[in-house]
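Review this fold:
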Amino acid sequence: MSELKGDKVKNFFKRSLKNLQLYEDQHAKNPEMYKYEVTMMLNSLLGILVMLKERTKLLNKVDISFLDYDGNAKEFFRHMRNSISHGHFIDYIKVDVETKEIAEIEFVDKCPACKKETFKQKLSVSELRTLIDKISQVVNGIR
């Protein structure tokens, strides 16, 4: 219960990342029983990004230079949060034909008034995992 003291938002980040790691560890041991690791990554990322309003400065420190994105971290994470929160990624999930596994997700943000796309970012599963790792490094004070 000591995690409920101190910085509650940062502790929420840490717990979300720990849950994801526990799931991934189980997936590695028993992939048939734990076969939704990409869904778990997306759920964890959603929980983390919803806190964006509370800790924008924390996410601004995340290194996104490995991505093909021209803007800054602040706008990137705002668009990602909007895309996930409003389900604008569901129709853009690409599945590998051979493995039947999710291979890539395109995140889209749209202007609420005009429905025009204001952001598009494709991430492979590997890039999604790297992004979560980069967030984890900042949250855990590695960076």
Summary: The helical segments are 8-29, 37-50, 56-60, 73-85, 125-139. DSSP finds five helices and three strands in the chain.
